[in-house]
């Protein structure tokens, strides 16, 4: 059976809320019914077939995949609230990719705007390009960010990656911006490239795993060199991912603890070559 495909067929003047276009929401709907669904760009309501060229077969169960082709940064909230099924996206996307993701898989073959994996609880989000600010963060008014699941970014991440992260795993193969792991409550963030200033700012618990030495602020305490056997278990969890992180082996690290300014017990681990 061919997969349902939605190809963007025109340039959008405003960002479009695409939260309705998930396998669970479209299950059992015919192609004409999908075409007639209304999407909001904040000012107007647009029919799906005004924006997308629809092809393939209808979704018969929530475990199937939707292909988005020729997408753009005007498409917000792709994959919002899904608990099963998958999205495969060719092109860039807008903000809030995987918003409230609670299962299933999203694979974006381009770049994303801010707040990818916002409020995420379960599932897998893969981004082949770069992503914007607040990766795995919380939405406005939320006291917790990402609460579970796995995020893999092949490119770079913007500022505040993992802000208020509560649980889960974020792996960034490129660089991360300023305030990485800010206000982190728990979970694990790995960064292969450089991190900006104030990494671990107001960090309470959790682990920030680095391969390049960061410029750290004064309230992170240097605890010296350690051999940490538990890292072998962490590396095993990386092995199932298509990532450079799956090649890590060293258990020897330099360790910092903090943020002492908020009585935090988080850790920053710099892996030795």
List keywords for this structure.
4 helices; 2 domains; mainly beta; two-stranded parallel ribbon; 13-stranded mixed beta sheet
What sequence of helices (H) and strands (E) makes up the elements? EEHHEEHEEEEEEEEEEEHEE
Distance between the termini: 48 Å
* Rg value: 20 Å
Largest sheet: 13 strands, mixed
Give the overall form: elongated
What structural class do helix, strand and pairing data support? mainly beta
Strand content: 25-35%
Average pLDDT score: 95
The low-confidence parts are none
Describe it:
The protein is mainly beta and 273 residues long. The chain has 2 domains: 1-83 and 94-101, no CATH class; 114-273. Helices cover 8% and strands 32% of the residues. It is built from 4 helices and 17 strands. The chain has helices spanning 23-26, 31-36, 48-51, 231-238, and strands spanning 4-8, 16-17, 38-40, 45-47, 52-55, 65-71, 75-76, 86-91, 102-108, 122-127, 147-153, 167-172, 188-191, 207-210, 221-227, 252-258, 266-271. The strands form 3 sheets. Strands 5-1-6-8-9-10-11-12-13-14-17-16-15 form a 13-stranded mixed beta sheet. Strands 2-7 form a two-stranded parallel sheet. Strand 16 and strand 17 form a beta hairpin. The longest helix is centred in the C-terminal third of the chain and has 8 residues, at 231-238. The N and C termini lie far apart (48 Å). The model has no long low-confidence stretch (mean pLDDT 95).
């Amino acid at each position: 059976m061919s997969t349902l495909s939605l190809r963007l067929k025109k340039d959008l003047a405003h960002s479009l809320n695409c939260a309705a276009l998930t396998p669970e929401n479209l299950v059992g709907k015919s192609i004409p019914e999908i075409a007639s669904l209304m999407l909001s760009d904040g000012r107007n309501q647009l029919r799906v077939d005004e924006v997308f060229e629809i092809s393939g077969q209808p979704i018969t169960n929530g475990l199937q995949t939707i292909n988005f082709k020729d997408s753009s940064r005007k498409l917000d909230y792709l994959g919002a609230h899904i608990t099963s099924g998958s999205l495969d996206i060719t092109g860039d996307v807008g903000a809030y990719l995987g918003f409230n993701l609670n299962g299933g898989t999203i694979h974006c073959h381009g770049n994303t705007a801010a707040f990818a994996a916002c409020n995420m609880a379960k599932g897998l989000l893969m981004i082949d390009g770069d992503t914007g600010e607040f990766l795995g963060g919380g939405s406005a008014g939320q006291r917790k960010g990402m609460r579970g699941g796995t995020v893999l970014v092949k490119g770079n991440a913007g500022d505040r990656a993992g802000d208020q992260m509560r649980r889960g795993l974020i792996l960034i193969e490129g660089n991360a911006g300023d305030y990485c792991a800010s206000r982190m409550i728990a979970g694990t963030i790995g960064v292969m490239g450089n991190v900006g200033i104030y990494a671990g700012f107001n960090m309470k618990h959790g682990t920030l795993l680095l391969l390049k030495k960061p410029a750290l602020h004064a309230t992170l305490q240097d605890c010296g060199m350690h051999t940490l056997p538990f890292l072998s278990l962490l590396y095993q969890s990386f092995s199932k991912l298509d990532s450079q992180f799956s090649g890590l082996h060293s258990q020897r690290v330099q360790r910092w603890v903090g943020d002492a300014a908020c009585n935090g017990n988080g850790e920053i681990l710099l892996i030795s070559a």
